[in-house]
Design brief:
This protein is of the alpha+beta class. Helix content is 36%, strand content 21%. It has helices at 17-37, 50-57, 62-66, 86-95, 140-156, 175-188, 195-203, 230-245, 290-293, 308-315, 337-349, 363-372, 383-388, 406-414; strands at residues 40-41, 47-49, 70-72, 78-81, 105-114, 126-135, 163-168, 250-252, 264-271, 280-286, 301-307, 326-331, 353-354, 377-381, 390-395, 401-405. Strand 15 and strand 16 form a beta hairpin. The radius of gyration is 27 Å and the shape is elongated. The structure holds histidyl-adenosine monophosphate (HAM). Histidyl-adenosine monophosphate (HAM) binds next to strand 6, strand 10, strand 11 and helix 10.
Amino acid sequence: MSSSNLQAPKGTRDLSGSEARAFTRLENIARRVFDLHGFEELRTPIFESAELFSRSLGETSDVVEKEMFTFTDRGERTFSLRPEGTAGVVRHYIENNLWTKSGVHRFFYSGPMFRAERPQAGRYRQFWQIGSEHFGSADAAADADTVVMAARLLKDAGLASFETHVNTLGCTDCRPKHREALLAYLSSKASELTDESRKRMLVNPLRVLDSKVDGPKLKDAPAMADFLCDACRHHHHQFLELIRLAGITAVQNPRLVRGLDYYTRTVFEFVSPHLGAQSAVAAGGRYDDLVKLLGGPATPAVGFALGMDRVIMATKTESAVPQGRSAVVIPLGESTVSKAFEVAESLRKISVAVQPVSATRKMKNQLASASDAGANWAILIGEDELKSGKLTVKDLKTREQKTLSLNEVLETFHV
Ligand code: HAM
């Protein structure tokens, strides 16, 4: 392979510079929010048995049908790179018999996910998610807590405007009745539908409503809301009331069905107006049947995941270093390297970020990379500064220059 063929695979990219910093910053914000809500970190493998995903997400979901990176190892076992985080967390819950230890378990996770989708702005083959899963509570308060926590995370990350779309998909008691009515309705419209929808209709009629082409033709389709059992209706009302009390204005969207099969009752999606076609920045819902489906005891659960790539695109976060807590110290010749080194260390001791000092890198380049890293100050040390004991301090935003003693510089950063 010649060096010109060395490229990151299609749909993947390296994270560097301000983008890498924005990812770290978002992870740190998420950790604080998860702490506030009492969630513990869980790191699961990035590959799992392919069957775990096909059973969890549904054989006929787009992700399983078309988008998994699946491979066979030397022992002829079939694995897939994880396309999402929920299935692995549920596998962990079952494998470790966690229900025998305590009624409730709450986890959060972050890391890369893999889907062989057609790449476009905001859609990658390797992308990053931060998510949570809450096991052992069927209460509407658990759904509300997840939505409030996800909204808090998006706000703290700097996302100024987003919509919260919610819906309920009912449960195994009421969903079959809706499915039957929907199937009858879709059959009556079959001649107007695409081949794909006609095929989908037989395995998962709900997802036909999700179709970009056919969805708009199906405005008078039977709505789940008219088929809900009393328990699901009560659960949904309580959920809506709790998020309202938390200050969230939700858009009730009866067409919100989600692309993965494991959902029951509450589903939700956070949508940013700044992202064009790939507008969902976070999504999730309740999945009360999945633990049992995978071999554990019946366990209610609810969770969400946000797409880090999209959240960062929407916020255009530039820097992980708070403005004004970063500086560059530039020795103007070999003879002042020691002094520059000493000044840099004094600054780091009071938590000011300083790049390694260099007398050989061009001053122009050092100033440019410092600005890119969010630095406000450049401290220049030449022979004159060495003699006078004063430092030349340049404000990188206003270009103003001052002469200050080291103590005066340190005081500036203490405020
Ligand atoms: P999802 O809706 O498939 O749900 O993905 C969640 C978020 O991941 C999306 O809203 C989007 O921001 C991001 N995302 C998905 N695919 C891509 C992609 N190809 N490129 C960039 N970002 C992407 C789940 O994954 C569920 N596991 C969420 C959940 C947790 N439900 C219950 N618990």
